[in-house]
C-alpha cells in the first residue's frame, strides 16, 4: 500500500478527487492529508467524493504547518462528524503522548496512525506505551533506517509499519531544473515488502517543506515520473527557457509543455493526467500553476497505482 503525504490544499485534493472518481486509488493508495487551512470547503468537497467512491483517507489532526498548528481537537471533531470508514485519524508524535492518549479516549478513536521522526527511542516510556495501544494500528517513520534500535523495535509489534521518505530534490530556483537530467526517483514500491514494511510513504513530487507563497515564478517546471524497464520510478523536469523575468507565464508553460508532451508521445507514456496536459498544449490553453501541479501529482499516483495493481 502507498501512503502519499499531501497537504489538504485545493489542487492536491482535486487530484485525489479525480483519481477516486476514476476508480484508480481504491485498495492501492491511502492518502495522508495534512490540513493547512482553517476553512474546510475544499476538504468538504473532497470528502463527499471519497465517501461516494469508498476511498479511505488519513487526516492529520494536529498539523505542524499552516493556519491551525498544534495539538487541538478541531480536526478530531471534524473526523467524528463524518463517516469513520472514510476519514481515519493520524497524529504527529512529538513527545505529546498525553494529548494523543486523551484524544483517543475522549473521542473513542480507533485505527489511528502515528507519524514520527526517527529520533524517538524505545527507551522513551511515553512513546512505547503509546505505540502499544491497540488503537494505534499504523506507525509511519521518516527514514527509519537511520535508527536501527527503533527499526527493530517497531518490526516486532505486529502493526502496519510504514517508511516515510523525502524524495523530491527541491531547487533554489525553478530555472535550476534546466541543468538536472532525468534521474531515479524511487524504488520503495519494489522493495518495501521484502524489507519488512507494510507500506511506503512520501510527499509525491512535492517538497516536504511547506510554503504558502503565491508569487509568479520566473520559470515553469512540469515534473513527470514514469516507470523504466526495471520498474524503477524515474523523474524528468521539463523546464521553460525564457526565464529572465516573471513576464508571460503562459509562454513559459507552452515551452515546458512542448518538451513534456514531445517526450511523452515519443516514449508512449500516457494516462489521464498526461492526456490532460496534452489537451492543454494542443489547444494552446494555459490552465494555471495549480493545475500544472495537480497534473504532476496525479500522474505520479497513477504510475504507482499501475505498478501496485499489476504486481
Brief write-up:
This protein has ten helices and eleven strands.
Question: If you average the pLDDT, what whole number results?
Answer: 95
The secondary-structure element order is EHEHEHEHEHEHEEHEEEHHH
- Tally of strands: 11
Low-confidence stretches: none
Q: What fold name goes in the CATH topology slot of one domain?
A: TIM Barrel
How many DSSP helices?
10
Biggest pleated-sheet summary: 8 strands, parallel, barrel
Structural class: alpha/beta
| Beta-strand proportion | 15-25%
Report, as a whole number of angstroms, the end-to-end distance.
Answer: 11 Å
- CATH C-level class of one domain: Alpha Beta
> In which order are the strands of the major sheet placed?
1-2-3-4-5-6-7-9
Instruction: Provide the CATH architecture of one domain.
Output: Alpha-Beta Barrel
Sum up the overall morphology in one term. globular
Residue share in helix: 25-40%
Amino acid at each position: 500500500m502507498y501512503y502519499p503525504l499531501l497537504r489538504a490544499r485545493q489542487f492536491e485534493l482535486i487530484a485525489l478527487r479525480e483519481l477516486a472518481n476514476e476508480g484508480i486509488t481504491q485498495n492501492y493508495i491511502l492518502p495522508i492529508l495534512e490540513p493547512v487551512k482553517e476553512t474546510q470547503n475544499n476538504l468538504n468537497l473532497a470528502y463527499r467524493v471519497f465517501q461516494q467512491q469508498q476511498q479511505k483517507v488519513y487526516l492529520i489532526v494536529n498539523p505542524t504547518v499552516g493556519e491551525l498548528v498544534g495539538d487541538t481537537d478541531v480536526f478530531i471533531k471534524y473526523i467524528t462528524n463524518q463517516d469513520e470508514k472514510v476519514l481515519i485519524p493520524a497524529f504527529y508524535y512529538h513527545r505529546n503522548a498525553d494529548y494523543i492518549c486523551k484524544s483517543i479516549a475522549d473521542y473513542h478513536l480507533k485505527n489511528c496512525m502515528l507519524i514520527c521522526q526517527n529520533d524517538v527511542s524505545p527507551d522513551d516510556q511515553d512513546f512505547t506505551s503509546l505505540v502499544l495501544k491497540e488503537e494505534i494500528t499504523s506507525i509511519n517513520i521518516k527514514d527509519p533506517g537511520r535508527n536501527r534500535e527503533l527499526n527493530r523495535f517497531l518490526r516486532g509489534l505486529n502493526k502496519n509499519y510504514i517508511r516515510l521518505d523525502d524524495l523530491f530534490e527541491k531547487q533554489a530556483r525553478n530555472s535550476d531544473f534546466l541543468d538536472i537530467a532525468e534521474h531515479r526517483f524511487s524504488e520503495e514500491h519494489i522493495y518495501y515488502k521484502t524489507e519488512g514494511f507494510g507500506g511506503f510513504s512520501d510527499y509525491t513530487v512535492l517538497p516536504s517543506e511547506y510554503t504558502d507563497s503565491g508569487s509568479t515564478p520566473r520559470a515553469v517546471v512540469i515534473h513527470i515520473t514514469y516507470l523504466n524497464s526495471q520498474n524503477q520510478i524515474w523523474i524528468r523536469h521539463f523546464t521553460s527557457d525564457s526565464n529572465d523575468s516573471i513576464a508571460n507565464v503562459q509562454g513559459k508553460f507552452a515551452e515546458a509543455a512542448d518538451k513534456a508532451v514531445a517526450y511523452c508521445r515519443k516514449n508512449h507514456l500516457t494516462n489521464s493526467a498526461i492526456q490532460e496536459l496534452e489537451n492543454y498544449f494542443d489547444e494552446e490553453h494555459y490552465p494555471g500553476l495549480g493545475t500544472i501541479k495537480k497534473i504532476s501529482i496525479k500522474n505520479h499516483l497513477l504510475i504507482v497505482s499501475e505498478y501496485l495493481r499489476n504486481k
